[in-house]
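B., you asked whether I could sanity-check this one before it goes into the benchmark set. Here's the sequence:
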Amino acid sequence: MSASPNAQDIVAALLEARLSGQALPAFPAPVPATLADAYAAQHKLRVALGRPVLGWKLGRVPPPLVASLGATRLAGPVLHCADLDGENPGEARIFVGGASAIEIEVMLRLRSVPDHRIDSDDEALTYVEEVRAGFEVASSPAPDVFDYSPFGTIADVGINNGLLLGPQIDLADFDEIEVSTEIDGVHVGTGRPSGVLDGPLGSLRFLVNLHHDGVITLEPGQWISAGAITGVHPIAAGQTATAQFGTAIRIACTTIPDTGYPR
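And here's what the prediction gave me:
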């Protein structure tokens, strides 16, 4: 995988910001202009951060660019996971002065890696070991990263800053469970996993394609953060997000400033 000559400058700036926990004034230039360059920069940054890949997050390509790019989704590596204890809100680390959002998602644990591309949800489900409710913490040191989606988002490790993993959800109907979200007690969104493009198993199929295209490497046991169910909700340090999955599962997290690696 190769990147443009200036990719190393982008990676160096993002790496220093993530290691120090300090926000950047703006996304470092030049922003990648192709998906190939963006994923190449992501790979370099992920390797430089020196963390094992625990999973993959999925995001959406802006609708006006879907036709020209030939992709509806984008992917980024997950380098930090934590379990929610069910009693107290988990800690969601964000870059103060950067861009931050919380996303409520279903997390699919990969049983094994398909040796071929997958055409159906039924087949995709056979590769899922378990499903859990959770939060994706989306945060970047660059305050304007969303202005450069999908290329800036992809390059900055998908702007993923960790997953918070809650209780298991029944595999039988996990994609139809109703989910609602509050931030500081204010309702901000409702949805079902099946409403995110072609659903969570569509996210898995997308990642399998990227794997077989040589863009990413899937491994058994990795988590797949399958897409924002109720929306991408901006959040500031000190705020608390709460998500209700059906009637039985309720999870919460409070944002704190990211002080940099290592954790």
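One thing to flag: The CA atoms of residues 137 and 161 lie 5 Å apart. Otherwise nothing jumped out at me.
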